Structures are given as structure tokens and as C-alpha cells.
């Protein structure tokens, strides 16, 4: 146990000695660029097919690989499904755009929210989740949970009623 504490203490002292921790490492940013309900199946196995485009930014001066971004899609306060984005490579002080094609099962509450979207009505959305950073020899720590992004979803109606 003592052998483990010495390297951790040395690393901590080096990070704190060089700069405040908040300036040393910054959390990636997440922004939903677009979200689209492509189709809604109500019979048989009810599902909503959604395309989600997320811009992930890296404010740090070194490249970062996120091994996974795992989040939950919340519509009007209802958890409607999982969004996973594996292997996101971020350039230093740069960004990348990731697309997720989702097939989400519909519950009664989720179905109501997706029907509103399909009719062209607005709903609030939120992505709550975690991300796992690949830090090489330092391991793969998971950060969060955080609210990664939130906003209002409104698109042209895809249902005539």
C-alpha cells in the first residue's frame, strides 16, 4: 500500500505545483448538433428510430481518447433509452462529431413524447451520462454522471395526424 501512495503523492504534487488542477485538465464539452426522429413503429415491437449528432470538444492541449460515452436520453423528464458512443478520438484543442443511430423501445410514457415529436410539437431533451477516458498507462477512469447536453427538440411533423 505504501508503494502505491508514493507515486500518487508525487504525481499530485507535480500537478499542483505546476498549475491549479482546474487549469491542468479540463472536462470535454458535449453539444447535440441535431436530433431527428426518423420513424415511429407502434405495432408489433414499438420502437422509435432516432439519429443523434453530438459534437465533442477537447479544451486540453493534448489529444484525448474517450473509450466510451454512455448516456441516457431523457424526454420531458422521462428516461427513454441508452446512447453509447465508443472510441471517440479528440484532437488537442479540437472537436469531433459523432453520429448515433438509435432504435429505442417505446413505453407508454416514451411513446407519448415521441408522438409529440412526430406531430411536430416541441419536447425538452437531456443527455445524462458518463465518459471513460483512455489515459494509457494511467488506466481508464470513468467521470460523471453529468448532464452532457440539454435543449429543446422540435422537427417538422412526420405524422399527418
From TrEMBL:
It comes from the Bacteria. Residues 35-149 form the Water stress and hypersensitive response domain. It holds the Pfam family LEA_2. Keywords: Signal. Gene3D superfamilies: 2.60.40.1820. Residues 1-24 form the signal peptide. SMART domains: WHy. InterPro entries: LEA_2 (IPR004864), WHy-dom (IPR013990). This is LEA type 2 family protein.
